[in-house]
Specification:
Elements: H1 2-25, H2 34-47, E1 51-54, E2 58-64, E3 72-78, H3 105-121, E4 129-135, H4 144-150, E5 161-172, E6 176-178, E7 181-184, E8 186-195, E9 199-200, H5 210-228, E10 235-243, E11 250-251, E12 254-263, H6 266-286, E13 290-297, E14 302-304, H7 306-320, E15 325-327, H8 337-341, E16 346-354, H9 374-389
Helix pairs in contact: 1-3, 1-9, 2-3, 3-9, 5-6, 7-9
Length: about 400
């Protein structure tokens, strides 16, 4: 079966590279993936695979092999893009102004579509059922995974395991990487507004200096991590946006801050929420201003179940050769795949896409992110192989 999957992945590689080109050139933002969803639906119809639509743009398909109830597993791909202006000079660059597949979700969707075609053609030769989840809205709270779970994506039929891949621009093309246990951090979005009486910069005593208060708060918040969190458990608090004022001699009446909290420990995560709110209130109100604060609870940690991940790693060794399968580093990034791993055992692994000789070295979420497209054949092949093997 392994040789058949590899042969079909090689045979269909160019077809799905063209699929990736189409998706890359026509990106859509989170929860607006209407054309992407329709494209996926049309492809599944072309392959002779039935599907249903969930959470407006999500697509779910089921392929039954022999003895369909003997094992039920799920394969997941996300499909939304980012609000980034592409700077790559390629024939398939984004035609949508200010929107780009800068996180590789076009690759993920392509690989799952490729796996769908392969698995469907071989369905009389493998056991069980494979559920294909084409997910909306990974890049934006509340996360498309949470919406699809609420609408029953893990039911009827109910998979007992779920697997997803993600491009890795730090990993050479031709390699895969896995990690047992915790893989990625939780993520919160933080919104703070400081309000006070603005006024002339030459008379600060008649104002509440919202700029100074914001500065004190930003510096102080860092101590929440450095002096309250266990240093053996990674955590990051970053204020990434400051908006306030538009003149050199006017103290503004309002300053807005935005940032993110990333944690590897779920209990510390919620303790940090309380500390951030208490410290912000004490500093801002103590300096005479008013505070509005929202901590928008985001994605949970991503955890790869150890036994399943070991199983996937061994299958990857068979598919790639042991020298091409590595251990994924712990990352403070976040992924809504964590919602699935809260429900059933999951494995989240990385697909190498880096090629320094071709200048393909840029990270995700940047205007020049791209991939070595030989990764498409590997991605669709390994997803097929894991789909019938786990």
């Amino acid at each position: 079966m392994l040789s058949k999957i590899k042969q079909l992945a090689s045979q269909y590689a160019q077809e799905f590279i063209e699929v990736r080109h189409h998706l890359h050139a026509n990106p859509e933002l989170s929860y607006k993936e209407f054309n992407t969803s329709k494209f996926i639906q049309n492809k599944l119809t072309e392959f002779g695979i039935s599907y249903s639509v969930m959470a407006t743009t999500g697509v779910v398909a089921v392929i039954e092999g022999k003895n369909p109830s003997s094992r039920i597993v799920a394969l997941r791909a996300d499909m939304d893009a980012l609000p980034i202006q592409e700077e790559n000079n390629v024939a398939y660059r984004s035609i949508v102004d200010g929107v780009m597949h800068a996180c590789g979700h076009d690759v993920h969707t392509t690989c799952l579509l490729g796996a769908a075609k392969i698995l469907n053609e071989l369905k009389n030769e493998w056991e069980g059922t494979v559920k294909l989840i084409f997910q909306l809205g990974e890049e934006k709270n509340p996360g498309g995974a949470s919406l699809m779970i609420k609408e029953g994506v893990l039911q009827n039929p109910a998979p007992t395991k779920i697997v997803a891949l993600h491009v890795h621009p730090g990993l050479q093309v031709g390699k895969l990487s896995f990690r047992k246990g915790r893989v990625m951090a939780s993520a919160e979005e933080i919104f703070i507004t400081i309000k006070g009486h603005g006024g002339h910069a030459a008379a600060p005593h008649l104002t509440q200096d919202t700029i100074l208060i914001a500065s004190q708060l930003i510096v102080s918040l860092q101590q929440i991590i450095s002096r309250n969190n266990n240093p053996t458990s990674p955590s990051v608090l970053s204020i990434c946006s400051i908006h306030g004022g538009n003149a050199t001699n006017v103290i503004p009446s309002e300053v807005r801050l935005m940032g993110t909290l990333r944690c590897m420990d779920e209990s510390w995560r919620y303790k940090a929420h309380d500390l951030i709110k208490k410290q912000a209130k004490a500093i801002v109100e103590g300096m005479g201003a008013e505070l509005e604060i929202l901590i928008d609870v985001g994605y949970p940690t991503v955890d790869s179940e150890p036994i399943l991940t070991e199983e996937c790693t061994m299958l990857a060794n068979d598919f790639m050769g042991e020298t091409n399968v590595e251990e994924t580093e712990l990352r403070m990034g976040a992924e809504d795949f964590g919602y699935y791993t809260q429900q059933i055992p999951g494995c989240f692994f990385r697909l190498g896409v880096r090629n320094e000789a071709q200048g393909i070295i840029h990270n995700v979420h940047t205007p020049k992110f791209n991939i070595d497209e030989t990764a498409v054949e590997i991605g669709m092949g390994i997803m097929s192989w894991l789909g019938i093997g786990i």
